[in-house]
Design goal:
With about 525 residues, the protein is α/β, with parallel strands linked by helices. The protein contains 19 helices and twelve strands. It starts with about 25 loop residues before the first helix and ends in a 5-residue tail after the last helix. This is threonine synthase.
């Protein structure tokens, strides 16, 4: 499906081009005065309007002085720009209907709920963004991929104008997250899904801390860094979260990079060892609490109401601004063509709405001309959205989440239930579930074709198998399965599966090691049985 192609127009900010008569050169105190513009030629210089700050090669380096970091280069570049010269802005508004149509909050306010107690949403000034055609934004975002120019080399901050347009580059805390692999699941589609030629897996778990949570955490921690810095100097003592594992890992890493204290509430004995060790290694204060995630969430809300701790859970809508960039990345990786289906595992349910926001924003601003259909996949042991969907969206009822191998989505009372319902309804979407055996089999079968999937990806893959079997997803439908975490974080579940040690589970695709005597004949006997030589 081709993207909408906007007609080209004269480049904006022509008067601010390098070497123009606008006086930008003289506004930048640089020495020595040997500079050369290095902005991409076709792209208007929103990210580098003061391109004359680029420097002649100095000891093999282009774009900055030998003793200058990429952050310092960005600060020098941005120093030349008028305050908010582009006019882009964003703010909080109540999510959904509000009794006060004028209710809004600055992103610099520490606020998590609307005046009526509902969720908040980040709203962008679309009228300012729409002054540029969709073709402009496509070219601009594409021009930043793979670069080290601060902060645009990040998959999140390469879309800065769509994320936090007003934050200074110097306040951004980035580990160059995003830009994750879009894996062509050729063999899985061909051999196990009826010959699907256009099946893809978006590996969001190939990120700094091994999950998609990095995409949102860079935005949240950057905003906290801005609030703690001059001139705002807000008295924020630290950042806290309740977590099923991945959120705590991301928060701890980004806070460590910014030298901001991190406080983590984890349910005792309910996350993997790999997930537990990450916040410990990054120096976070880790509280192991004898309750489930929902209990940890209730406690962190109470604590952040009493102490100067900034809440980092997805109740905070800032994280969704980073997570939505995964949707924009998918469009980029398909050369701005829109897939038919995107399948997202769902627990606390912020991510399915984040994907909706990313696709919707691109459509509204003319980067593409349509939306994919969204599927939210839940574990049957923690399936409140699925039950809500099957009831015809009657009154939502939280559930008590039972233990699941997909532990990061073991949530029975999701914060973002209203957001998820909105995303599914707006995209004519579907909610599906997967039993423990279905998700583990799907994960293990995918591994047999070259992946190393996590159990949560197994949930999404199991949903795909069901939707293919029912004929809802067609053979030639371009389909993207979102992998939310790296399989290396959940190795114990794989060990137990391949050892056939999971109670009441057949483990159809188990592949245990074969014990063999240390002699040539025994080894050859096993290999002759295992190998099929094509003649």
């Amino acid at each position: 499906m081709a993207a909408a192609v906007a007609s080209s127009s004269a480049l904006p900010f022509a008067s601010l081009q390098p070497n123009s008569s606008a006086g930008l050169k003289n506004a930048i105190p640089l020495s020595p005065p040997t500079f050369r513009a290095t902005c991409p030629r076709r792209i208007p210089p929103l990210s580098c309007v003061a391109a004359s700050t680029s420097i002649e090669e100095d000891n093999g380096r282009r774009g900055r002085y030998a003793d200058e970091s990429i952050r310092e280069e960005a600060a020098r570049r941005d120093h030349a720009l008028p305050a908010n010269f582009h006019g882009f802005s964003a703010w909080y508004v109540p999510f959904g209907p509000s009794s006060d149509p004028n209710e809004r909050y600055s992103l610099d306010d520490v606020v998590y709920r609307s005046s009526s107690g509902g969720l908040l949403d980040v709203r962008h000034d679309f009228s300012a963004l729409a002054k540029f055609p969709g073709s402009y934004w496509r070219d601009l975002f594409d021009s930043r991929v793979g670069r080290t120019t601060w902060p645009y080399g990040s998959g999140v901050w390469s879309k800065k104008e769509f994320v936090l347009p007003e934050i200074d580059a110097d306040h951004i805390v980035s580990l160059f997250e995003g830009n994750s692999n879009l894996f062509w699941a050729e063999r899985l589609g061909r051999e196990h899904l009826g010959g699907m030629p256009d099946l893809w897996v978006k590996h969001c778990g190939i990120s700094h801390t091994g999950s998609f949570k990095d995409l949102g955490m860079t935005v949240l921690v950057s905003q906290v860094n801005r609030l703690r810095s001059k001139p705002l100097s807000r008295p924020i003592g630290g950042v806290g979260c309740a977590s099923t594992g991945d959120t705590s890992a991301a928060l701890s890493a980004y806070c460590a990079a910014a030298n901001i204290p991190a406080i983590v509430f984890l349910p005792t004995d309910r996350i993997s060892l790999a997930q537990l060790v990450q916040p410990i290694a990054n120096g976070a204060t880790v509280l192991s609490i004898d309750t489930d995630f929902d209990g940890c969430m209730r406690l962190i809300r109470e604590v952040t109401a009493e102490l100067p701790i900034y809440l980092a859970n997805s109740l905070n809508s800032l994280r969704l601004e980073g997570q939505k960039t995964a949707a924009i990345e998918i469009l980029q990786q398909f050369d701005w063509e829109v897939p038919d289906w995107v399948i997202v595992p769902g627990g606390n349910l912020g991510n399915i709405y984040a994907f909706y926001k990313g696709f919707s924003m691109c459509k509204e601003l003319g980067l593409v001309d349509q939306m994919p259909r969204l599927v939210c996949a839940q574990a049957a042991n923690a399936n409140p959205l699925y039950l809500h969907y099957k009831s015809g969206w009657t009154d939502f009822k939280p559930v008590t989440a039972a233990e699941t191998f997909a532990s990061a989505i073991q949530i029975g009372d999701p914060v973002s239930i209203d957001r998820a319902v909105y995303a599914i309804q707006k995209t004519d979407g579907i909610v599906e579930e997967a039993t423990e055996e279905e998700l583990m089999d799907a994960m293990s079968l995918a591994d047999r074709t070259g992946m190393f999937a996590c159990p949560h990806t197994g949930v999404a893959l199991a949903a795909l198998f069901k939707l293919r079997e029912s004929g809802v997803i067609g053979t030639n439908d371009r389909t993207v399965v979102v992998s939310t975490a790296h399989g290396l974080k959940f190795t114990q579940s794989k060990v137990d599966y391949h050892a056939n040690e999971i109670a009441d589970m057949v483990c159809r695709f188990a592949n245990p090691p074969v014990k063999v005597k240390a002699d040539f004949g025994s080894v050859m006997d096993v290999l002759r049985k295992k190998l099929v030589v094509k003649k």
